[in-house]
Structures are given as structure tokens and as C-alpha cells.
């Protein structure tokens, strides 16, 4: 049983990991095109089923809430309503958002429900970002001052009123705020981003090797 | 049987797309969008049932959207059609590996799901090593270590000197940032000074990222206000205005009801 439960899955990780890794360095059509494309396709299929796992889990959770009539169970009904509000139109219109220049019923549902809710949910965060900024930008140290200045310049540089304020107050210097923003993004920010990326890449490579060689096994759960 | 079902669905599709393009469909869409937007924004006042309804609808609609994407972009074209046409039976392997994930719901055989997970982990790990090495490691280093001046071009012009300064600043900043992330050595003396400079570079970067995020969120906010303004017009029967005032009336009313209840309780 240990062979089926543990050894074969670990061997699968090793073989798939090593072959995916080597395929990058073997300059042959069979490896760099056929094998990698096939694996990409298989990965997409499995990920689609992984989504199904999440969906079923969500449904079980909300169905359980409705069944047990826990506090706020009525809201769980809206999860199913929202789901059906997208899925029924999708089946009616065959997954197409448009027919020519006209919206299908799926396109209509996407525009009126999903896109509206998604955009509003993220835009609400704008208010919280501002309140967070107010608290975190209290300048207590030189580092916090730099953080504040960079953020303020970026915000000012992207709105016409910021450009107007800059030109009125500091126009005499001959430096444009858009130039400063561009310089921040292409010089000091690049240095920090590269430092972070190098650190992240080393971490990712090490974790990947630990997974391939079976040192990291937490994703397998317990027996 | 299946053909008549498809023909029926096709008829509904054509009829529904005609309805959607009609003024009635547009207006209903406007009312729905305006209502959901205002319900979401109502959270800025306080947590309330309308926000919770919109929140749960968003969750369901998001899952519904992803479900139809999976169905029409993966399950149908990549599994069902190759098997039905008999051109590729190998897709059964990932389909079975994917189905094995569902075993998570049955504790006794939950270990079966390992087969699906191990494929994903092996694939991701194997792919990320060369990808990380080439794009995030070597490419970042080679992008940093560049000649300060170009051969055959004058060095003492303002643009050349400014370019050399910027290249040096990127190199210097990167070294300082790397020192900050280097934990094998105690941060004291010269190492501490260098890593402190690294913090300044990091703060500049985080500030810039924060500024960009704020502007991204605000552009979404302008979009929502723009839509609310559009739906407040006569061709949408003043949807935004009516829903907004209805919600305000509800909040005012519920405030007084709550106050009355509190007084009674005392």
C-alpha cells in the first residue's frame, strides 16, 4: 500500500519534474515543442478539475449553511443564484460573449453582473488604501519619508491636477514631474525590483528542487 | 434527440440576444448594474444586508464565470472532443488525474488525490527552475552589469554621463538590496550601512508600487462613478438615483427602528 500511496506519487513528481526541467535544455523538437506542449495541455486539464474541487468545496460549505440554517444562511442562497446567473446564460449562448456586434445573454450577464461586481469590489479598496496610506505615511523615519515621497510623486505624476500643482509650484526648475516618475520607475525602483526578483528566483529554484527530490512533501498531506 | 436539444438552445440563444439588444434588456442591465454597484458601495457606510447580498452574488458569479470558462475552453475542446472524434485518447490520463483530486472529499480514499497534485507539483517545479534561472536570475544580473559607456561614442556628453550614472546607480542599488536580504552575515558595521542604503531603494520601490496601485484602484472607481452617472439618465429610468435614495431611506428607517428597540430594551 505504501508503494501506491507514497512511492509512486513521489516517483511521478521526480520524473515529471526532471523531464520538464531537461526539456528546456534539450534543443530538439520532440522535447521543446511536442513534450512541453503536451504537458501544458495536461496541466490545463488538471487545473480545470482543481477548480472543480474548489467549486464543490464552496457549494458544500454554503449548502451546509443553508441546511443547518446558521446565522446569515440566507446570503448563501445568493452564491447559487450568482452561479446560475452566469452558467445558464453561458449554456444558452454556447460560451460566446458576442454575436457579431451584439451582446449575447452571457455578454449581458457578464457586463451587468460579474464585471460590475468585480470592478466595484476592487474600486471600494481605493477608499481603504487611502485610509491605510494616511496611517502608514505618518513620517516617523527617513525610510518612511522616502516611501511617502515616491508614492506621492507617482500619484501626482499620473493625474492632470498633479501636473498642474507641480508646474505652478516647481515649474521654474524646468523639471517635469513625468520625467521624475519615469526616472524613479526606470532607475532606483529597477534596482530594488531586481534585488527582490533575484532573491525570489533563488528561493523558487531551491523549493522546486526540494519538491522534485521529494524533500518537500507537505502537499501530499498525511497518510 | 441531442440535435433537437441543440436546435432548441440555438433558438433561445438567438431570441435572448435579440432581447438583450432591445431597450428593455439594456434598461434591465442598467438597473442591475447600478443596483449592484450601489449595494457594494453601501459597505463604506457600514456592513449591511445589501452589501452581503452583492458580496455573495459576486462569489457565485465569479465561480460561474470560471466554470463556464473551464467548460467551454478545457473540458469540451480538450477532453470531450478529442475522445469523441477518437483522435486522442491520451487526454484521458490528465482527465483521470484531475478527477482524482475530487477524492479529497472522501477521507478514506483522499490519498488518491495525490496523483493529481503530484503532476501539478512536478510540472510546476520542473518548469520553474529554467524559467526562474533565465528570466528572474540571469536576465536580471545581465541587465545590471552593463558597460557604463558605449564604444565609439563620446563619453563626456551630458546624456552619456547621465546614462553612466543611472547604470551605476542600478548596480549600486542592487548590491545594497542584496546585502539587505543576505542573512548569513550579521548586519553590523559596514554590512549594516550598506543594507540600510538597500532599505532606501526598497522604500522607493514600494512607494512607487503603492502609488501605481492607488492610481489603478482610482481608475476603477472613476469607471464605476461614470457608469452610475450613465445609469442615472432618463433612458435608464433614473436607476442610480432611485436605488440610491431607496437605500438611504432604508438606512435612515433602520436607524430609527434600532434606536427605538434600544430604548425599549433599556
What does the model show?
- The complex is a heterodimer of chains A (223) and B (266).
- Chain A has helices spanning 2-25, 29-68, 73-92, 105-136, 142-157, 160-170, 177-186, 188-212; strands spanning 98-99, 102-103.
- By secondary structure, chain A is mainly alpha-helical.
- Chain A folds into 3 domains: 1-68; 71-124; 137-216, no CATH class.
- A two-stranded antiparallel sheet of chain A has the order 1-2.
- With 266 residues, chain B is an all-alpha fold.
- Chain B has a domain at 163-211.
- Chain B contains 8 helices and no strands.
- The model of chain B has no long low-confidence stretch (mean pLDDT 92).
- The interface between A and B is large, with 132 and 125 residues.
Short description:
The complex is a heterodimer of chains A (223) and B (266). Chain A is mainly α and 223 residues long. Chain A has helices spanning 2-25, 29-68, 73-92, 105-136, 142-157, 160-170, 177-186, 188-212; strands at residues 98-99, 102-103.
Approximate strand percentage of chain B: under 5%
Q: Could you list the spans of chain A in which at least 5 consecutive residues all have pLDDT below 50?
A: none
Please identify the structural class of chain A as seen in this structure: mainly alpha
Shape of chain A: extended
The helical percent of chain A reads over 70%
What is the overall pLDDT average of chain A? Answer: 92
In angstroms, what separates the terminal alpha carbons of chain A? 11 Å
* Overall morphology of chain B: extended
**How is the main sheet of chain B built?**
none
Beta-strand percent range of chain A: under 5%
Helix content of chain B: over 70%
Number of domains of chain A: 3
What oligomeric arrangement do these chains adopt?
heterodimer
Compute the CA-based radius of gyration of chain B: 30 Å
What would you call the structural class of chain B? mainly alpha
- Can you count the beta strands of chain B? 0
Strand order, sheet with most strands of chain A: 1-2
